[in-house]
Design goal:
2 copies of one chain form a homodimer.
Chain A lengths: L8 H8 L3 H8 L7 H14 L5 H8 L4 E6 L5 H16 L3 E6 L4 H13 L4 E4 L9 H8 L4 E4 L10 E4 L1 H14 L5 E5 L5 H16 L9 E3 L9 H10 L7 E4 L2 H13 L9 E5 L13 E4 L2 H18 L8 E4 L2 E3 L12
The structure holds a DNA duplex (16 and 16 nucleotides).
Chain lengths: 348, 348
DNA sequence: GTGAAAGCGCTAACAC
DNA sequence: GTGTTAGCGCTTTCAC
């Protein structure tokens, strides 16, 4: 017997007086092997609790059975729900998941993608960082043959599978509800101007205004280039809105992070919600219904988005499709109208 | 020139008419190499945008420069903060981070650890799943030479570095505040009975009772074996508490998940907080101050815990210490006394 | 049905 | 200072 500190095919082969290729065949359910031999090998491998080395296998096969995920931050409850969806689909297919964060930074995002590719992931799921405008580096990687599926904050320039929420409808309905409740001057605070998410939600917002015979006012539209993570983005936006002659009586906040931050800030300023200003946002936080006042929000199907995106990626990986018709899946959102937008709170 | 679809040392060596070892040396800043040759190689490598294959390097070196993390779920804000701390320390040392979730299940946890070891991580950071009681499998892995640092929910049985919050003090102070506010009958709801976290927080709770001349009542102590994630754990616990002859007038909830869930349930039942029952919990959610009523809570230093644990792990990895004196670091917690425990809410 | 041998991309003795 | 060689653990021709 060879020393037992590291169990390898070689050791098993030596102990059993066979060749490594036979052992390899037995363990991978290869058909060209004697049933008795196979049983003997499997029994011994089980006894030693042998687990084939993934790294060696990856190097040899060129496939790691791992998919990489790049998103802004797991601290955002929406994304942590997405992760659970991704895992559920991946594990079912015997794939591993490696989660990385871009913290809304282009440089970090690029670094994470580089890490993932160098670690031979079989495909990448990603939601772009707020700070990302140039995606040529992704296009290059995709063209080199690595499947990429985009979700949430997607890139319009790259042709690939995409999964998004119905951002337009969510924003349209939320804004419409504010207007229907009697608010006249609905402001808009969102993430970066160029993001797909912002663009779509903005369109929904504008449509609702138009449909109510309101002409959009540039001054009541605010963007946060760092999705509200930068020092004074939120504070400045609110300050500016409240200094307007025609001060807004409602705000539609278009991202999860911006929604919580704006809510926090307004509460800190001891401005009455919804009497002085009504709020309707986007959030997946389970605490939204427990805040004071309960926060009206558009809820995105996080789990489903992750699951669907992972399924599409796995399909690309397994079937090695290069010239597929790529599709964009749009998932429905749910509206929760609560006290912060002037509605009556109904818990549960 | 060799075909350019895959850039390897071999290709560079061929193109430059050198040996792969020379290329390897140049790229790894080896000293035994001619400065001019080195520059030529680096220039060409840069031109091709060459990135050495991590998998091959890992197989060869036996080190992946990656640390694995196992925790219950990133959906818990405390853990997502821990992750950010881990990343900050790891990136600084040029290490990658691979995050996995156990969802409080022993089997999943074991599977994740197996995945990580087979993928040759250089060390593991872990907080035990609620469902884990037998840690012999971890002991085996650690004894085989893989460094493991425990954080948050730790294992008393394995000798290794550990990082925890001051659970005893947090629980003691929280319970004391409830008692000082005039509540007479403070109940306790926590995660699984055997968890290190529960044990310590329970001890703090009991100490506070004793110090106030109160004898603990078994009937007002509830455990949730799945940390509140299982169907009716929370509902049953609350039902039982409220059916007692001597109904509690306050509840100390001892984990992040249990705290939010209990709060949610009490609000749904339309029981007045704190008038009918006061609440004091453990949570890292940033929305705690915005709930109604604002939720009194013990806040753990998530970022610091992750950072410290990662630093200790990296120290074990880099210095290859096998016979170190292992230490347990206890980090201070912060108390936020708010309206749910009968205090006045102060925002900000 | 089984074994021998080559090689995935890289590093590290060891020669020269 | 540079090249040759072996080998990390695995899979896969290709013989037999």
């Amino acid at each position: 017997m060879l020393p037992s500190n590291k169990i390898t095919l070689k050791k098993i082969a030596h102990d059993l007086n066979m060749s490594t290729s036979t052992i390899s065949r037995a363990l991978r359910d290869n058909h060209e092997i004697n049933a008795v031999t196979k049983e003997r090998i499997l029994a011994y491998a089980r006894e030693l609790n042998f687990r084939p080395d993934t790294i060696a296998r990856t190097l040899r096969n060129g496939k790691s059975k791992t998919i990489g995920v790049v998103l802004s931050t797991v601290e955002n409850p929406f994304y942590s729900q997405v992760i659970n969806g991704i895992e559920s689909a991946a594990y079912q297919s015997g794939y591993n998941v490696c989660i990385t964060q871009s913290h809304e930074s282009y440089d970090l995002e690029k670094m994470q993608v580089a890490h993932l590719t160098r670690n031979s992931v079989d495909g990448i799921l990603m939601s772009l960082a707020a700070g990302t405008t140039d995606t040529t580096y992704l296009k290059r990687i995709k063209d080199a043959g690595l499947p990429i599926v985009f979700f949430d904050n997607i890139d319009q320039g790259i042709d690939s599978h995409k999964v998004v929420a119905d951002n337009f409808k969510g924003a349209f309905e939320a804004t419409s509800q504010l207007l229907n409740s009697g608010y006249k001057n609905v402001a808009f605070i969102s993430g970066p101007a160029n993001n797909s998410i912002t663009v779509e939600r903005m369109a929904g917002y504008l449509k609702a205004l138009t449909q109510n015979g309101i002409i959009a006012n540039e001054a009541t539209i605010k963007y946060c280039m760092h999705d509200g993570e930068n020092d004074c983005e939120i504070e400045n936006a609110i300050d500016e809105l409240f200094l307007l002659d025609n001060r807004p009586d409602a705000i539609f906040t278009a991202t999860d992070n911006v929604s919580t931050k704006v809510f926090q800030s307004i509460r800190r300023r001891e401005i009455q919600i919804p009497d002085e200003v009504a709020l309707f946002g986007f959030t997946n936080s389970k605490l939204a219904e427990l805040t004071f006042p309960a926060l009206s929000a558009v809820h995105q199907p996080g789990f489903e988005m992750g699951k669907k995106a992972a399924e599409m990626l796995l399909d690309l990986i397994k079937n090695n499709r290069s010239n597929t018709e790529y599709q964009t899946v749009v998932l429905p959102v749910q509206l929760f109208s609560r006290a912060s937008s002037g509605s009556i709170t109904i818990l549960g």
